[in-house]
Amino acid sequence: MKSWLDRIYESCPVALQNALVSLYGRRIFRQRFGPGFDSATELLKSLERAPLDSIREYQNERLRKIVEHAYATVPYYGRRWRSAGVGPDDIRAIDDLEKLPVLTRQEVIDNREDLVSTAADRGQLRLATTSGTTGYPVSVYWDRGVTVMNNACLWRARSWGGAGFGRPYATLMGREIVPRRQTEPPYWRYNSTWNQLLLSSYHLDEETAPLYVDRMREAGVDMLEAYPSAAYLLARYMEMRSLTLPLRSVLTSSEPLLPVQRALIESRFECRVMDAYGQAERVAFASECERHEGLHIFEGYGIVELLDDDLEPVPEGGAGQIVATGLHNMAMPLIRYATGDGAVLARERCSCGRALRLLTGITGKAEDIVVTPGGRMIPGPLLSYALKGISGVVRSQLVQERPETLTVRLVVNEDFLPRDEDLIRKGLTERLGDEVTLRFDYVSEIELSGRAKYRWIISSVPLRWGELSTSNLYEGGEAD
Question: What is the separation of C-alpha 126 from the centre of its chain, rounded to a whole number of angstroms?
Fold first, then answer.
């Protein structure tokens, strides 16, 4: 549901909306580029090519600090570790982490307030909530330290693709920056503080795509940051119009990047895609470099373990679940947190010369694209906002067999209220329009399917590109 600030913003003329976007950009700049950003960036750079012993020395030092802090000031860890007979003196290095129990998503949900440090100034914290589309929606508190470090990681990854702060770039993400009721261009807004062109994913279609390309060209944009599915849609529309737009790089995140998506995006933008991995819980970050041989683990951000089903470490070349310990969120430290994402730990280091370990085959939730009766194609991340903050949803899934109907499958708990269904219905209708009928199906379990770890959107409705029709993204094995 839109806040009163959103409604005021939507009622403003475009020029004032641009000014408000830039003003908000200035506020975010102060938060993300505050004290510590330069030193965080230098730390990340120094660790990239440091000897393994130096990397481990830094991680061990941070680990000891965060474990001692958590034991002394975080009620949940104090109780749990004492009952397990483990204290700070037992955790001196990464190899000692196996003495600590793994922290599950459900434990974070059930004990969120007890996982907050008593030394934290709650007035300075930000509460962030995952959408819940991956299953268990998790809310975590961020402090300034992890906010700045996460931003340093983002800009370090962007720099590998030739981008730098102040250079013109565009984003094609999920934030509703242009009111959905708007039917005439411009379908973008401009953040002058960041030299950032914010493109509306909600207004992207075959007719508007050339306008997006023209505006990006006029603005001198040299990098695009986007959801893989959104960048793929734009590239498809560009292909239909025989358009290309040379860029330095396209940075994707938040969804698994499929080979079919990568190939088309790189063809239309005449550059390589730089894929990145992170999560709202802020425990791990990884990104491709210019060699594209895997995703480098940002070892200064967190300690990443890959564990098998028995919670044993997998050897290099093996697949396992990403279990990570964040090294910078002192307000709500997550230690040995089971992310629910899978990956393969590469045997070899990247030919770029960086010492950072490589992850390949990262799996998160898999998503098809929802197609409306009018032919609009809606990427999953845009629909996920409808479930954000609904704490009673344990797991969700959208199933589409016909354009006219979308089934919303929900596993809920006792916190789910009747009005929550109304909120979800309203949020989805705002994004899909009244032409799609929503059917709610309450179930006890939603199973995993196929090789994809978890499919949030399953659609058998074909994607139509003019006269051409193709199967949806995860239909026909394109997820492999």
Answer: 17
The domains located in the chain, with CATH, are 4-32+162-271 (3.40.50), 37-152+278-363 (3.40.50.12780), 366-477 (3.30.300.30)
Mean pLDDT of 407-413: 93
pLDDT bracket for residue 480 (50, 70, 90): very low
Residue 48 in tokens: 């990239």
Give pLDDT, residue 131.
63
Query: Average pLDDT for residues 251-280, to the nearest whole number?
Result: 94
Tell me the pLDDT tens digit for each residue of 46-74: 999 999 999 999 999 999 999 999 999 99
**Residue 55 C-alpha from the chain's centroid:** 26
pLDDT of residue 477: 45
The 3-class SS string of the chain reads: CCCHHHHHHHHCCHHHHHHHHHHHHHHHHHHHCCCCHHHHHHHHHHHHCCCHHHHHHHHHHHHHHHHHHHHHHCHHHHHHHHHCCCCHHHCCCHHHHHHCCCECHHHHHHCCHHHCCCCCCHHHCEEEECCCCCCCCCEEEECHHHHHHHHHHHHHHHHHCCCCCCCCEEEECCCCCCCCCCCCCCCEEEECCCCEEEECHHHCCCCCHHHHHHHHHHHCCCEEEECHHHHHHHHHHHHHCCCCCCCCEEEECCCCCCHHHHHHHHHHHCCCEEEEECCCCCCCCEEECCCCCCEEECCCCEEEEEECCCCCECCCCCEEEEEEEECCCCCCCCCCEEEEEEEEECCCCCCCCCCCCEEEEEECEEECCEECCCCCEECHHHHHHHHCCCCCEEEEEEEEEECCEEEEEEEECCCCCHHHHHHHHHHHHHHHCCCCEEEEEECCCCCCCCCCCEEEEEECCCEEECCEEECCCCHHHCCC
Q: How far apart are CA 459 and CA 430, in angstroms?
A: 20
Query: Distance between CA atoms of 97 and 283, rounded to whole angstroms?
Result: 15
Half-sphere exposure of 323 (CA within 13 A, CB side): 25
Give every CB contact of residue 402 below 8 A, 6+ residues apart in sequence: 461
